[in-house]
Structures are given as C-alpha cells and as structure tokens.
Design brief:
This protein folds into 4 domains: 82 residues, no CATH class; 70 residues, Dna Ligase, domain 1 (2-Layer Sandwich); 127 residues, 2-Layer Sandwich (D-amino Acid Aminotransferase, Chain A, domain 1); 82 residues, D-amino Acid Aminotransferase, Chain A, domain 1, CATH 3.30.470. It is of the alpha+beta class. Strand 8 and strand 9 form a beta hairpin. It is globular, with a radius of gyration of 21 Å. The chain is built from 11 helices and 17 strands. 29% of the residues lie in helices and 28% in strands. The structure holds adenosine-5'-triphosphate and magnesium ion.
Length: 389
C-alpha cells in the first residue's frame, strides 16, 4: 500500500516508532501515539503549518477512528467519525443497521454467561459469539447448542487486544448466517457506494472462522447483483459513512445477502494486492485518491482471477526448517515463507495469523485455474518441525 500511494503522492507517516522498511516510501514522518486522538490531532495541525496536507489515510483497523478525527480536524475529505466508530464497534454498527432495516442477523450485546445463554436460546441455534470490537476473527466462535455456549462465551469474553479498552457488554450473541462468505471492496464517495471487486472467502478451523484464502475474479457476477448492491448502499447510508474505501463482509444466505460487517479501510490479508493481479487496478492508489478528494478510476484493465492461500501446519509445532523449491508451476505468482526456523506455530484459536507459515498467490483465467496452480505449488513447500504438546 505504501508503495502504491508513494507512486502518486508524497507520504508522511504518523506511527508510534521511527520507520524502518517504510522509509523508502516516505517524504517524512512523525513519531506519535496513533491511539491518542489529541496527540495525533495536535501533531497533524503542527505539520499542516509547514506542509500542505492533501488527505489522511489509515490502513490499520484499530486506528481508523483516529485517522477520521484527524481528517475532520484538518477539514480534509473524511470518512465521517461517527460512521467509522459504528464500523469499529460491532454493537453500535448492528444498532445503526437495525434502525435502517438493513439485512443482517439478529444480534444482542451481553455482559454475562447467563445473558449469553438467554440470548442464544431466544435467537435459536446455531449462534455466533464474538467480541464487540476486535479483529482478525479473534474470539469469534460458533455454538451449535446450549452446551457449547459456556466455552464460546469464555473464549469471546476473554479475547482482547492490548490496544482496545474493554468495556461493559463485551460480547455479542448473533444468529448464525448460513451460506458462502464474500467481501466486497467499495469506493464510497460522499456516501454513494460503488463496488470495485468481490473476494470469495475460504474459512477454516470451525467452529472458529479463520480466513484461510481469498479469490478475486475481475468479472465476478456478484458485482452487478442488485441485492448485493442494495445491501451495500443501505449499509453505508445507515452507518453514515462519507468518503473512503470500505471492506464489507457478507454471507450469501438462502434469503439473499446479509451483512457480517463493514470495515472503514481496505481489506487485510493482502486482498487488494491479489485483486490488483485480477483487475489491474491499484487499490492502494484508489484509497489515496479518495482520501485526497480526487475521483479514482476503478475500471478493471484486465479480466483475470487471482487467489491467495495461507498455509498452516497440521498441528502445533516448533519450526526446524522451511523451504520452497526453485521451479514453481505456471500460474504461481508468488510463494512467501512467513516464518524462520525456531518459531513456534500454534493453530487457531491458540494463534490466528501467527499460526501461518507461508502464503501462495496464484493467477489464472478462472478460479479453477488458480486452484489448480495452488494444488501444484503446495507440495513444493516443505515444512519440518517438532510437534509441541
Ligand atoms: N452472525 C454471523 N453468522 C455467520 N458467520 C459469522 C457471523 N458473525 C461473524 N461470522 C464469521 O466470523 C468471521 C469474523 O467475524 P467478524 O468479521 O465479525 O469479526 P472480526 O474479528 O472483525 O473478523 P475479521 O477481522 O477477520 O474480518 C466473519 O468473517 C464470518 O465468517
Ligand atoms: Mg470481519
């Protein structure tokens, strides 16, 4: 993303520490606590006295509200602070969406195991229990019957990120949406939504919801699906989002698309990078253009498919060696080894993204071609390790 943005704009990084690998993309930087709105705002106002700021862009889920506050303070194009807060806080988001009648699962915030059990009984099984404001599916669990609620509640209520204050009613109990999951990356300009691409999501490690792969096809028919477009627009309107790129997760249920959540940023898991291989559009630049008030061009310049698959070991282990063969089959765009010998890998839910040891990016004329290239590539990646208890 930094590279994409730096190709068109001068970048000034606000981060809590001095830049490292980022430096080559930066014109400057400020060391600032990016979780502290006042400090971030004051630093931005000071910077604006010497540098002309065109826009504010944030790719980190936890910090998007602070970026919105800074943009609003500087009177720059803005996602709208309240809208971003409703994306970050899943309970606030559900309330805003419910008030507008947007298609979504029943959802209740609970503050005790008893309340969770009562909410699950009223909703009907299966249900999903999840923390109110985390990310990366940490602490998100399906419970298929009353006996599973206690363990699911412990997991959801004990999950935390150091960066996020815990508060009352930390857990949501939701109706389980049955059906394939997709994410839709959209441009939202003054509240008007244009979907850019769809990623089909592969999940693993049930009853958890670990994201293990994503496939993007430039000509995915869902892009023109009236029900998908309708729920996207209604959701953005209900949340009160202004000008930004969003990542919306939907489940395609028997009754049509239903909303998991809207994130006020580009998708993670390298989804925009994979999508760029499928469509030829640079989504990092799109996000920067929007932040700077320009109208981005989101028309695909190629019609292909691309896929990313994350690899996890079969069981928890300490890595002793990890290698990839030199000759990779056609259709394999990239294999990236993500850990070094000595690292301990623990499967979800003990670890999430930290349990991955590699990713494989494949391209082709269709999702099937991408899958074929992946099948050919995985035996060429060799992981060895000592199983842990
Ligand atoms: N009500 C639901 N019905 C079915 N599946 C759900 C529901 N809520 C969450 N999930 C599943 O759990 C995943 C993670 O939930 P959610 O997106 O709310 O949490 P998150 O921590 O923000 O996740 P991420 O950062 O991975 O997007 C979803 O992508 C979806 O697969
Ligand atoms: Mg999510």
């Amino acid at each position: 993303m930094l590279k994409s943005v730096a190709d068109s704009y001068d970048l000034w990084l606000f981060a809590p520490k001095e830049p490292d690998w980022e430096s080559r993309y930066l014109r400057g930087n400020t060391v600032v606590d990016t979780l502290d709105p006042r400090e971030a705002m004051e630093s931005a106002v000071r910077l604006a006295e010497s540098v002309q700021i065109a826009g504010v862009l944030c790719y980190d889920e936890i910090r998007v509200p602070i970026a919105a506050i800074v943009a609003e303070t500087l009177k720059l194009p803005c996602a709208n602070v309240e809208g971003v807060r409703a994306c970050r806080d899943k309970h606030l988001g559900r309330e805003a969406l419910a008030a507008a009648g947007v298609e979504q699962p029943a959802s209740r915030a609970v503050a005790s195991l008893e309340e969770a059990q009562e909410a699950a009984r009223t909703t009907g099984f299966p249900v999903v229990l999840k923390p109110r404001a985390l990310a990366a599916s940490v602490g998100v669990v399906r419970a298929d019957g009353p006996e599973a609620v206690e363990a699911a509640y412990s997991e959801a209520s004990e999950a935390y990120f150091d960066e996020i204050p815990r508060d009352h009613a930390w857990v949501l109990v939701e109706e389980y949406l049955d059906g394939p999951e997709v994410s839709v990356e959209s441009v939202c300009r003054d509240g008007r939504v244009t979907p850019m691409f769809v990623a089909r999501k592969a999940l693993g490690f049930a009853p958890h919801f670990e994201e293990v792969g994503h496939t993007v096809s430039a000509d995915d028919p869902l892009l023109d699906d009236p029900a998908v477009r309708h729920v996207l627009q209604e959701a953005h309107t209900a949340l009160g989002l202004g000008t930004l790129v969003t990542h919306t997760e939907l489940r395609l249920t028997r009754n049509g698309p239903s909303l998991v959540e809207v994130n006020a940023r580009l998708g993670g898991d390298l989804i925009p990078y994979v999508a760029r291989l499928a469509t030829g559009v640079d989504y990092g630049k799109v996000a920067a253009d929007l932040a700077a008030g320009a109208e981005p061009d989101v028309t695909p310049v190629r019609t292909a498919s691309a896929h990313i698959q994350f690899l996890y070991p079969e069981h928890d282990l300490d890595v002793t060696s990890l290698t990839v063969e030199d000759e990779l089959p056609p259709g394999v765009h990239e294999v990236r080894l993500m850990v070094e010998p000595g690292r301990r890998l623990r499967l979800p839910p003990r670890d999430h993204v930290a349990g991955r040891y590699a990713y494989v990016v494949t391209t082709g004329a269709s999702p099937e071609e991408c899958a074929e290239a992946l099948r050919a590539a995985t035996p060429l990646i060799h992981l060895a390790g000592t199983p842990t208890g």
